[in-house]
Amino acid sequence: MNHFEVRDGELCCEGVPLSRIADAVGTPVYVYSTATLQRHFTVFREAFAPYPQLGAPLIAFAVKANSNVSVLKTLAEVGAGADTVSEGEIRRALAAGIPPGRIVFSGVGKTAAELAFAIETGVAEINVESEPELDLLAEVAAAQVKAGGGARPAIAFRVNPDVSAGGHAKISTGKSENKFGVSFAEAERLYAKAAASPHLRPVGVACHIGSQITDLAPMEDAFRKMRGLVERLRGLGLTVERLDLGGGLGVPYFNQPAPPTPADFAAMVARVVDGLDVQLAFEPGRVIAANAGVLVTRVIHVHERPEGRRFMVLDAAMNDLIRPAMYDAYHDIRPVRPTNAPLAAYDVVGPVCETGDTFTRERDLPEAGSGDLVAFMSAGAYGASMSSEYNTRPLIPEVLVKGDQFAVIRPRPTYDEMLAREPVAAWL
Ligand code: LLP
Fold this sequence. Notes:
This protein is of the alpha/beta class. It folds into two domains: 4-32 and 291-420, Lyase, Ornithine Decarboxylase, Chain A, domain 1; 34-289, Alpha-Beta Barrel (TIM Barrel). It is built from twelve helices and 20 strands. The protein has helices at residues 18-25, 34-46, 69-76, 87-95, 112-121, 131-146, 184-195, 216-235, 262-273, 286-289, 323-327, 415-420, and strands spanning 4-7, 10-13, 16-17, 29-33, 58-62, 81-84, 103-105, 125-128, 154-158, 201-206, 242-244, 279-282, 293-304, 310-314, 333-335, 343-349, 358-366, 373-376, 398-402, 405-410. The longest helix is centred in the middle third of the chain and has 20 residues, at 216-235. It starts with a strand and ends in an 8-residue tail after the last helix. The structure holds ligand LLP.
């Protein structure tokens, strides 16, 4: 359920008509619903309530899905932690008031400076993805001790469970040919190595097999393998307190079969970890944010080719929402002021100068014309966070709605601001 509904003939976000935001802020613009963000987070958390034996899991929102500080703060209000993959994301989480004890630091290639920052911050867990990273982390931690610091960072090993989770190849991470994580055999060896280090504190293991997963079977398969690993490590006399099962749960993108619900997911997890006695962590991103946001854009014009193709040219482009170009992703497109206009087949495109800037082809949509507003639905995850200024199009603004109020939470830069960011080389 989300809070984007037609009221009095207008698509609204909670109590605010999207056209009002478009008029005030201009288009294109992302619009997020506070109630939906918080509801999705709460539904995910409450899905574990029937299993008190599991304890309260750490639910670390994957910041990459939507990294706006106000969005993170909105989620922090209802208890979210943060799954981060860069120093920048850690800083965003801290700026949003998320305590370090609820921040997980993941990622395949963390630099020495980033690791040092994470240790100083005292994040809950650094997910180590390879042996070189383990060695680097031990070095960085040792250097901090030498310099008078002293925290032994809590680490978890990200394991690649070698399962295929379906979905788009560019977002599948759990096969051994992908760059993520260590193998089960390596995990055992590296865990023992870390436990022997005076500077590291291995606390657990982690996995994340992909994104937009709509079938629980591969997840269950991976989680069972992770359970086996926990048991083997304990059999070796090692302490394993934490099991981080990543994110990846899919959302309905309108034309697809309904994915499993958080309740289905939690029931599966409870089955798999029954009696294991670990503290669970999850890193959901999309399932929290996707359906809590839309991209509102205006039709610049409709251009009909004599041979019959009809192009709807929007003021949003691939730099604002790259998912269709990058992953052939489907987003429902709705008129902001629905009419009884007949349907017509459109190629919906942006103004960027490449054919890849096509949101969809031959989609039946209500007839629309210059100046009409349309909304891309389910755009709250991996929308704004992946946007850019390609073609020197100002970075798309973001707006947060709460009830009948709204606030600009990332303004559109002016052209002067954009140009001021680029000092001209002194010799020019
Ligand atoms: N944890 C880790 C370590 C991850 O790499 C990811 C996503 C997540 C959690 C969150 O996954 P989620 O619950 O959102 O599926 N840009 C792509 C998605 C990339 C996902 C990358 N990793 C898209 O727009 O579909």
